[in-house]
Specification:
- The chain is of the alpha/beta class.
- It has 21 helices and 16 strands.
- The protein has 3 domains: 5-39 and 51-156, Fumarate Reductase Iron-sulfur Protein, Chain B, domain 2, CATH 1.10.1060; 171-266 and 423-490, FAD/NAD(P)-binding domain (3-Layer(bba) Sandwich); 270-420, FAD/NAD(P)-binding domain (3-Layer(bba) Sandwich).
- It has a 5-stranded parallel beta sheet. Strands 6-14-7-8-9 form a 5-stranded parallel beta sheet. Strands 10, 11, 12 and 13 form a 4-stranded antiparallel beta sheet that branches.
- The chain is globular and about 70 Å long.
- Residues 1-6 have low confidence and may be disordered.
Length: 491
């Protein structure tokens, strides 16, 4: 799926690119300061669910695009799991061809407006930027520019739909409408396959809808991306559990020739400590799903969520940040991150940590809960926490947390959200006993094709990786689409 050297050379040799090089010298480009994303005021935003980042203006986007050096060897592309032609879309922005920039993004990215908001560009494409690698300066703000191009197109009302090939009259089923499933559906639709996406929940979007708060990724943004897939011919069926509503054999009998499983990792992990069954102790999955997808913050809905005043979130990843910042917006007077390592080992994005700090979240690093206690009604009211210190690095490369003896203390907490990771739902493995599964419950695949031990079944995203990022799941989806295409053409 990568761009060939001929394609890259063709792009580099476009006359308008030569004009750009002459108009602004590289030395002048490197003097431009990286743009800062405009944001809602921290005090204001901590009381609403509106998007925190406000997007770049045209002037900001074009000025930032001027920083791109249009490298002969664009290493930024190697850092992108879906192989976006980054220099090409950025140069379109520099010249004011904003709609063309969006078209370029969609050549390889099904969800550009989503990725521009939630992808960790700082450890992917931007980490491979020439500025970072050679000049030791802040990278070009590739993520901000991706968001700008996608938003400009949407707001213009001139949304491009990628071209699709003539119908092949071959049916492919996609299980799960998260980022992996949407990516594979988009690529297969371009090649003329008849794609149906089956989603167990009542809304399409998977983790993009139930797992990421609207202050980071508004639901209407996701809906527009999904609508574009519909225009490409992709069919979506919600409230449909493959393995229960219909079996894989049922779908084969209906004419489906290949399957992609992108059902994610929605089974929450717990610590198995006393008190985890008390009222008010949630998994981050349940907590965020109730708020993001089930209207828990709106009056008259059937799935309310407890809005505690002293909320403790256990964990240090992006989902933990989403949970604690949501708690703040639900009225928590004290919203705390309890994390057993130090801030340096915290896996959440730097931006998310920074935003949480600005919004008044407390960080209790080098602490770990060992018990929750409740009142006579079985509701959590407090927790026992022990202090930790860092020892030698473990298998992950991070320093291992070690208990400090006799350091336990008690603190108040009327809501606890456990965010220490997720595992794949075991349903797929239960209904497909011949499917090869790892000891962690993930599906084992060929890393090149994403094909499983069952020849017509492919998989990707969190059900293969465990908990991972949106863009890595999409990269799996694109790789699987190519694998499915080759498999079907050989058949």
């Amino acid at each position: 799926m990568e761009l060939s050297s001929n394609q890259l050379n063709t792009e580099r040799n476009q006359p308008w690119r030569d004009e750009l090089r002459k108009a602004v010298k590289s030395a002048d480009r490197t003097k431009i300061e990286r743009v800062k994303m405009p944001e809602q005021d921290a005090v204001v935003r901590s009381g609403n669910h509106l998007e925190v980042n406000l997007g770049l203006s045209r002037e900001q986007a074009q000025n930032e695009a001027k920083r791109c050096l249009d490298c002969v060897e664009p290493t930024c592309i190697t850092g992108c799991p879906v192989n976006i032609n980054i220099p090409k879309f950025i140069k379109h922005i520099e010249t004011g061809q904003f709609l063309e920039a969006a078209v370029t993004l969609k050549e390889t990215n099904t969800l550009p407006a989503v990725c521009g908001r939630v992808c960790p560009q700082e450890v992917q494409c931007e980490e491979k930027c020439f500025y970072t690698l050679k000049l030791k300066k802040p990278a070009v703000a590739i993520g901000h520019l991706e968001r700008f191009a996608a938003d400009f197109e949407r707001e213009s009302g001139k949304i491009s739909v990628p071209a699709v090939a003539a119908p092949q009259n071959i049916k492919v089923a996609v299980v799960g409408s998260g980022p992996a499933g949407l990516a594979v559906a988009g690529d297969l639709a371009k090649w003329g396959y008849e794609v149906t996406v089956f989603e167990a929940l009542h809304q399409i979007g998977g983790v993009l809808k139930y797992g990421i708060p609207e202050f980071r990724l508004p639901n209407p943004i996701v809906d527009v991306e999904i609508e574009n897939l519909r225009k490409m011919g992709v069919i979506f069926e919600s409230n449909f559990i493959v393995g229960k509503t219909s079996t894989f054999d049922d779908l084969r009998a209906e004419g489906y020739k290949a399957f992609f499983i992108g059902s994610g990792a929605g089974l929450p992990n717990f610590m198995n400590i006393p008190g985890e069954n008390l009222i008010g102790v949630f998994s981050s999955n349940e907590y965020l799903t109730r708020v993001n997808l089930m209207g828990a913050t709106q009056k008259g809905y059937d799935t309310p969520v407890l809005s505690g005043k002293k909320v403790a979130v256990i964990g240090g990843g992006n989902t933990a940040m989403d949970s604690v910042r949501t708690a703040k917006r639900l009225g928590a007077e004290r919203a705390m991150i309890i994390y057993r390592r130090s801030m340096d080992e915290m896996p959440a994005r730097i931006e998310e940590i920074h935003h949480a700090q600005e919004e008044g979240v407390e960080f209790m690093c080098l602490h770990n809960p060992i018990e929750y206690k409740g009142d006579e009604n079985g509701k959590v009211t407090r927790m026992i926490v022990q202090k930790m210190e860092l020892g030698e690095p473990d298998a992950s490369g991070r320093r291992r947390p070690v208990v400090i003896p006799n350091s336990e203390f008690e603190m108040e907490a009327d809501t606890v959200v456990v965010s220490i990771g997720v595992s794949p739902n075991p349903l797929i493995a239960q209904v497909l006993p011949s499917l090869e599964i790892s000891k962690w419950g993930t599906i084992i695949v060929d890393e090149n094709t994403m094909q499983t031990s069952i020849p017509d079944l492919f998989a990707g995203g969190d059900i293969v990786r465990g908990g991972a990022t949106v863009i890595l799941a999409m990269g799996d989806g694109r790789k699987a689409a190519a694998g499915i295409h080759n498999f079907l053409q050989k058949k």
